[in-house]
Amino acid sequence: MEIRTPRFAHDRPFGLLLVVTGLVGWLASGQLVLERLAVYADPNYVTSCDVNAFVSCGEVFKTWQASLFGFPNPLLGIVAFSVVITTGALLLAGATVAKWYWRSLQIGVAAGMVFTIWLWSQALFAIGVLCIYCMVVWAAMIVLTTFLTSRNFLRGVFPAGERFRGLLGGWTGTTAALLLIMTAATVFFRFVGVFA
């Protein structure tokens, strides 16, 4: 029995998904860079996402985790999400992208997801302060990683049996939604005592 490729894994719909997730992540990363520049210019500047002591980009900026590689982390997001947006635009324009490119993009996105998981863990369990724009990037990365991985298996970029591909086709959206809900739940339950 041949497995039908779900609509989201076709080039044009997938290109749109890449553009949307890439744009969301790029805008959030860009806002973080602008906020950081404003803090550099005026140490008393109050960032737009300083809600309280537990939701504050300004407080997160003060931690070593916010500049892990010696420069603000969102600069990585601006570059990486630009690649995602460009790839999506190529697909929307009807371009054909080689398998090596998809494999490279998968490696880059997977590395970005590992970094995102580390940042999530640091925010919740080490820093104890949340950043709204960071959480937007987390959400974009969850959707991007889930759908890209599924698309690459469904389209034969990586080998997979028919049964596995059948499961991917039917469960990709649900998996992304469950990961988003689980992430939101970790935030809620970590901070529920704080906000109560």
Topology:
Layout lengths: L10 H31 L15 H5 L12 H19 L6 H29 L4 H23 L7 H34 L1
Helix pairs in contact: 1-3, 1-5, 4-5, 5-6
**What oligomeric state do the depicted chains represent?**
single chain
Provide the CATH topology: de novo design (two linked rop proteins)
Based on CA atoms alone, the radius of gyration comes out at 18 Å
Main CATH class: Mainly Alpha
Q: Strand fraction band?
A: under 5%
Largest sheet: none
Number of structurally distinct domains: 1
What's the CATH architecture?
Up-down Bundle
CATH superfamily: VKOR domain
The helix tally amounts to 6
* Tally of strands: 0
Unreliably modeled segments: none
Mean pLDDT: 92
Helicity, as a percent range: over 70%
Report the principal-axis shape: globular
How would you describe what is shown here?
This protein is an all-alpha fold. It has a single domain (7-195), classed as VKOR domain (de novo design (two linked rop proteins)), CATH 1.20.1440.130. Helix content is 72%, strand content 0%. It has six helices and no strands. Helix 1 runs antiparallel to helix 3 (74-92) and helix 5 (132-154) packs antiparallel against helix 6. The longest helix is centred in the last third of the chain and has 34 residues, at 162-195. The radius of gyration is 18 Å and the shape is globular. The chain starts with 10 loop residues before the first helix and ends with a helix.
